[in-house]
Amino acid sequence: MALSRLIARPLLASYFLANGAQDLKDAPALAAQAAPVTEAVAPVLDSATPEGLPVPRDPVLWVRASGAVQVVAGLALATGHLPRLSSALLGATLVPSTAARYRFWEATDKDQRREQLTHFLKNTALAGGLLIAALDTAGRPGVAWRARHATHDARREAALVGARVRARVH
Predict the structure, then answer these.
(1) φ, ψ for residue 80 (rounded to 5)?
(2) Alpha-carbon distance 141 to 138, whole Å?
(3) Contacts of 8 (CB under 8 A, 6+ apart)
(4) What does the alpha-carbon distance between residue 99 and residue 119 come to, in Å, rounded to a whole number?
(5) How confident is the model over 58-88, as pLDDT tens digits?
(6) How far apart are the first and last CA of the chain?
(7) pTM (2 decimals)?
(8) What are phi and psi of 138, to 5 degrees?
(9) Burial of 66 by CB count in 10 Å (0-12 exposed, 13-18 middle, 19+ buried)?
(10) CA 146 to CA 140: how far, in whole Å?
(11) Which of 98, 134, 135, 159 would be 88's cystine partner, CB 3.0–4.6 Å?
(12) Cα separation of 1 and 35, whole Å?
């Protein structure tokens, strides 16, 4: 593993470990901020999940679930276990939490608006880092590359077999 990954992954994960622990600890207090987002997301999830699978509506549960995912995925990323999946999961928790906590567009006080915008942009930067980490194949070919090359190899083999068959027929 490259030294940069060895250092960068724990650094990136550190925010999510601290934030996830805080979410678990302060879930009831954070639920008021999360409520507008959970109210908007729950109907979308209802239509995307199989019938009979209930989607929770309780914002406290959503905050706790997000906190738990951040702690577990943060630990996985920090230790290099499933770094692409853990980065993607962290990114998935970052979007709704940012929309819930840092609604700078609603702030009326200039200083509050600036502070909210700063946190919003910090989370945007974290999302960029997570995207890089989620797409990082650590120098190994990714699934898309393997699929393209497997298709190319299969076509080449088929052409060779076809040429051999044609040569024997003639």
Answers:
(1) 80, 15
(2) 8
(3) 133
(4) 11
(5) 999 999 999 999 999 999 999 999 999 999 9
(6) 54
(7) 0.76
(8) 55, 35
(9) buried
(10) 10
(11) 134
(12) 41
Contact 66, 96 (CB under 8 A): yes
Query: pLDDT tens digit string along 145-157?
Result: 778 888 888 888 8
Tokens 């070919």, located at residue: 141
Hey, is 96 helix, strand or coil? helix
Whether the Cβ atoms of residue 22 and residue 93 lie closer than 8 Å to each other: no
pLDDT at 145: 72
Greatest extent of the chain over all pairs of C-alpha atoms, in Å = 86
Phi, psi (degrees; rounded to nearest 5) at 17? -65, -45
Q: Which residue has the higher pLDDT, 104 or 4?
A: 104
Show Cβ contacts of residue 103 under 8 Å, excluding neighbours closer than 6 positions: 116
Residue spans per domain, the chain: 3-139, 142-170
Q: Whats the size of the chain, residue-wise?
A: 170
Q: Which two tokens stand for residue 41?
A: 């997301």
Q: Which DSSP symbol is given to 109?
A: S
